[in-house]
Each structure stands twice: as C-alpha cells, then as structure tokens.
Amino acid sequence: MVLIAASIFSKSGKALIARQFVTDMTRARLEGLLDAYPKLIGNDKSAAQRQHTFVETDSVRYVYHPLDNIYVVLITTKNSNILEDLETLRLFSRVIPEYCRSNEEKEILAHDFELIFAFDEIVTLGYRESVNLAQVRTFTEMDSHEERVFLQIKEAQEKAAKAAMAEKAKEFKRMQKEALSRGLKPGAGSSFSSASAISSQSTPLTAVSDLPASKPAAASASRPSGGGKALKLGAKTKDEDAFLNQLRQQGQAIAPVEKTSNADRSSAAPLIPSAAAVKREAVHVRTEEKITASVSRDGGLQNAEVFGTVTLCVASPEFNTVAMKMNNARAQSGAQLQVHPNLDKKEWQATGLLRLKSANKPFPASSDVGVLKWRLILQAEDELPLTLNVWPEESADGCQVNIEYTLQDKSFSLENVQIHVPLPPATAPVVSECEGSYEYLKPRNQLLWTLPSIDSSNDSGTLEFSVPNGHKDHFFPVNVTFYSEKLMVPITVEHIETMDGSSTDVVHSTETRLVTDKYEIV
Question: What is one Gene Ontology biological process annotated in the Swiss-Prot or TrEMBL record (predicted)?
C-alpha cells in the first residue's frame, strides 16, 4: 500500500487541510488531485449517506468517509489494498474527534497543525505505521514528567522567596519602630533607614541577601530560582517537604533521593523504594526482574515476558573472586538462563555455582557487574501476578466503566499499585465506587487509581465510574505499574564462598525486586 496524501474536505468541496506523504510528487500535481475530488463525487447523490466508498481515476484512487460536515479522504495508488485503505481511513477518522470538539470547518482549521502532526504519526513515507489511537496521542503530546516536576519545584522556590522577603520586611519595620522608640533618628548613616528603604522596594533578591547566614530559608531564597541546583532535593526543608507531599497527593510518585551509583540510577524507577533501605555488606547481590505484558481487553494474553538480572557488587579487592551458590529454579520456571562469559558455565550447570573461570579476571571493586540473566515467556494470563477486567458500557447518558483487579498468586505482595485509565477528551469522571484512592489528572486526561498494597487480604477490588460522553476505545490502553520483593523466577542466593571453596560463610547482603516495564490492557 502506498498512500499519497490525506485530506479533510468540507461538504462544499473545499480542502481544509492536506498532508502529502510521498516525496516524488510536485505541489502542482497534488493540488490537481485535490481539485479533482469534489468533481468526481459531485454527481454521486448517495455519497454522503455511505459509510465507506471510493472513486478511481486513471492513476489514483480516492477512499473517503463522510463524517457529519466533512469528508476524510485518502489518495492512494490504484494497486493498493482496499482493505488496508479502509482500516487506515478508520484510524484517520477516529483521530479527528481527539483534537476537535466538533466537525465544523472553523474547528478543523483551528486545530490544523495538531491534526497534521497526528497524520504524520499514522503514515510515514506512504506506508501505514503500526500504531493505535492512544499511541498517536502520546506521541503528539510529548508529555514530560520531569518538566512538570521542575516547574512545580521552581514555583515552590519562588513562593518561599516571597514569603522570606515579606518576613524580613516585617522584621525591618519592627527594628525601625524599636529604634524610634529609643530616640534614634533614622538618618543617612542609620542602618535601620537603609533596611527600611530596601524593604519598601520590590527587590526580593537584595532584601534576602542581607539576611544572616543562620536562617536556612532565607539562604535558599537568595539563590536564583531555576539555577543549576534547582532540582537538588538532598537537603530537606519544611517548605520542600510540604511541596513533595502535595505532589504525592496529586498522584505523582516521588521517591527519596539517595546517593546511589550510576548503575542504580539507570535502573531505578520512581515507584521503587530506595536501595539505601537495604544494609549493604562488603558483598552485595541485587536481583531485579522487569515484566512486560500486553493483555487483550476481551481476555487473553497477547504477549508477556520477564527479564531478570543478577548483579554483584564487591566493596574491596579482597572479595573480587568470590563465588555465589544459587538456588537454581530453572527446571520449575522454564526460564532461559545465561551466565557471564567470564564465569564457569559447566560448574553452573552442574552445581548452580557462579564462579570465575580464572582468578586473573576478578570482579571490579565498587562496581555492579551482571553475572546472570534470564528470560521467561508467559503463556497464559493466569501466570501474571495481577489481572484487570476492564468493562466499559456505552449508553445514551455516556459510558459506565467497571474495572476489577485480581491478584492471581496470593503469595505476591504488590506495592504502590497505580492504574492509569485514559478518558475521553475534556471529560471529568464521576466515581461511584473505589477500592483505595483515585485522582483525576486533568493535564494527562487520565484517571489514576492508586492502591498502596495488594496482597491476600485484598486480592480483588473494583473501580466504578461514569463519563457523560465517549466510546469504549477511549478507555484503552490501561497502564499498570507496581513493584514487589518477590520474583517471578525464584532464583535466590544460598550462600557466598571463596573461589577455592575454603570458606562458605562470606558475609553478604541481598536485594530483590520485581518491577513493571510495560504492563497494559489494550
């Protein structure tokens, strides 16, 4: 299929917007094709009543769809697959209500660039991309969590600076009154007169810079907001704690900032507790699994994989040749395991011992090294730790949506579970039943359902809400995030020994976690 261009026409035959997808066609040729379309359907009285139809010329095919007061038109080559053309046309037709409140000409022209950007996400160089409506909206919005957090932190710092300035101005006025009561005249050499002059002017940075160094609030306000250290959250203050609590109440996941290695920063997620909570010994082993799952809204697993890694970190060179005895559960789990090339593969297969081939290639000190990894493909939806049943129902009053979660394995304890449900544009939900808490995220156009923990005590729960408009596709894909200390593939450390096996009681610490990489219902 080669799609030449996509366009939106009014019922009067006026081309409102058009997007060309091929490069080997001149502008004059494209304008000629657009001008020919109203003439081709001008005598077709039944064209406006048809759901999908097409007309052909000697060189191209026009596939169009009437949508209230407009036509959505695709110009393709004659040898393109008409079934694929119709499927692409449906996606183009569904994109328009996402950006326009109505199908009027003024509304289309007011959002012309948004529609063109969305068209570019659907077709590239004349060929359809494998995207759905939710992905198109995500790509065009380019939403940035980091930018929102930065702007909110900057706003909080500005408020703190203004509050400190007002407090200092009050203090200057009080000092001036005390001076006057003692009989001192505020003259040119009086420090109180200078202080009063400064406080009366709208120069917060000057006023704050005169504060004593013993007041941390004033010291932080004297720094220009948005500077190089604006995002440093290491030194907690009262205002900063209040700001972070406000972020958490708005549905943002904020983890404590800890001093970790570069490897820890790259693998950490906002929902995962800090690794500093685990007491690290001289030998530290971290096991992490990431689960990726895509479940059909009608039931059934589309694809699901679990990727696991075991990393070793030794604090000093005296432990850089240790060996780890693992509880190898490969036979029970069916996972595909791989060991690092520098380790003895035969020893691992025979005894489950991760040992170096040669002492001349030891583990580097104070650095995380991957020693074992695996990949597990899940075959059925029941193998997932958490399943969702999303049930939207359309009615004359809008849509009623019921969502039920079920913990499949009662031995799991899922922490900080967040379920993001997309909503129709410019629609606020009315929640009638909810286990846990919920938050309407207006900038993201989402309903955030949060449960602090899901375990055997609350292995199922429901969320029920309604919206005044929209259809079933507006509520997908539903994205889920959580973490757990239990692994899908139960590979654990039995003990750590020296390379020659003379000692099997090397002191060590372990850390395990299961996190979501992409967990959605589509």
Answer: Golgi localization
